[in-house]
UniProtKB/TrEMBL annotation:
Presence of keyword Acyltransferase: no
Region (Disordered): 130-153
Protein name, UniProt field: OLC1v1017328C1
Compositional bias of kind Low complexity: 130-141
Amino acid sequence: MANFNAKFLFCFALIALAAVPSLAVMYVVGDSNGWASGINYADWASGKSFKVGDKLSFNYVGGSHTVDEVSSSDYNSCDPANPISTDNNGPTTITLKTAGTHYFICGIPGHCSLGMRLSVTVAPAGGAAAPGGSTAAPALAGNGGSSSRLRYT
Ligand SMILES: [Cu+2]
């Protein structure tokens, strides 16, 4: 009986842990500086851990800037010609839908090279994964793990 209760409580605890929701977070890019020239967005992003489901809010006056999601090479060369998505209505809210690194630049000529570019590394949802880390599901105690000790003859 005690053994049964222990297993029951263990399972209950696992279920309770799995049920804790990981709440999505809204990040205001650049904080009070918003989305503007002359801000170091690498500094802004450092130390933050983004995960799938989080949102980025880019604050700017519509028409004054754009938020273009681009490839890593276009990010590095500040080339807005082939954006994955683009918006200039300001403010722009982006939901981070996939894990991996996402790259954003302003498509107004000159602005990207003045600092208007942001890359964020996004971890899978739900885990307590550290940035860049990979997590495996915790190994569950299997049935019969200790049963060999109780062999009847
Ligand atoms: Cu701009």
